[in-house]
Predict the 3D structure of the following.
Amino acid sequence: MACERLSFDGWIAAAGTGSGTRVVVGHWPHSPFGPFSDVMLERADGWRVLLAPTSRTAQYIAGIYHFDEVRTGPVSVRRRDRVWDVAAGPLALCFTVGCRGALGLALRSVPRQLARRPLWAAVTDVPARLMAGVRTRGSSRPGWRQWYAVGDLWPIIAADASFDGTDLGPLAPVVPPVRFGFGSAPTTPALVRVLSTVERAGPGTA
């Protein structure tokens, strides 16, 4: 049976906070589920939470990644120049991005058609691990394969976040690494332009 392959085109933002909570936001204007956003959050005690807008997206994401709790409800992402506002149930996050650096410029120089290919993800996987501590291809669960085509990167230079009305503290590195899946997130808070491709092997497919 043929593999099922779905692509999600958008942005991923990752930021740590002074409280130890780390937040990863996915904003997907183009996806098989239509435009949507989601939030993956890991508290200092290791409790992992998914905030997804619908039961359909929640079921799909939770089937690929690992969470201790899944909540469904509206997830809103608004962009105002360099400022991004995220509202997802108990989470309120506002972050500001700075100017892209050398890595962002290098990523922008890669032709988009090349960057989308699985072979390119394989080529960039080792440099990504060495430079940023992340993976560009791998698997979070048996039977699934994923790869990321990264097209741009901006540093996150400021953030305000609260969860259930409690301030999460100032912007901090994404340390320790989040444990949702194989890819983790850069240690330095960042906003990444990305095409995420997820492939599920059919029965009997190696």
Observations:
- The mean pLDDT is 85.
- The radius of gyration is 16 Å.
